[in-house]
Amino acid sequence: AQSVTQLGSHVSVSEGALVLLRCNYSSSVPPYLFWYVQYPNQGLQLLLKYTTGATLVKGINGFEAEFKKSETSFHLTKPSAHMSDAAEYFCAVSGAGSYQLTFGKGTKLSVIP
Amino acid sequence: DSGVTQTPKHLITATGQRVTLRCSPRSGDLSVYWYQQSLDQGLQFLIQYYNGEERAKGNILERFSAQQFPDLHSELNLSSLELGDSALYFCASSVDQDPSYNEQFFGPGTRLTVL
Fold it and tell me: Inter-chain contact A101–B104, Cβ cutoff 8 Å?
């Protein structure tokens, strides 16, 4: 069984400040990890994913995440927040041979001007 | 625009009724996934079809069913609706059946309200 925990349902940062969204996972098989973003009244869009290889993954819009097996974490970061980053962010996990994504509850990011 | 279309955008109906949600995947994608997003349960995987065949089942109620047609569009049927079925229903598609290797592209969703 797989599960995802996102710490903080709501995070507020100032424009230009560091964005850090936390994700911890549980998986009985080597995990594949994903971050999705959902803008208001839209579907989800893939930001980045980790399957194998380099543990630091770069995605779109300046976001990156690091897979840390020892900490079972896959936190999402961005050095400098922009107003357009305000959205809800979902961490998800799947495993080899698994056909589905298991999502966390989501973290709503607010950016304060 | 992800290339995945869903109709209708909004649906308002009464308890006990039956509705059908429709999804057209991106051109070339063989796999379709259905998800339910609600305030209390979050985003939950319901069911997956690959090239017309059911591949995986998640937390899908017995009152719900789905199918994928030869032209690869999919329909999610919800019957004997309850207030708790009010949610946003997403369809996603991918090229292959394993989401680990293929990005899932999400449609804009159908918002179902059961009164």
Answer: yes
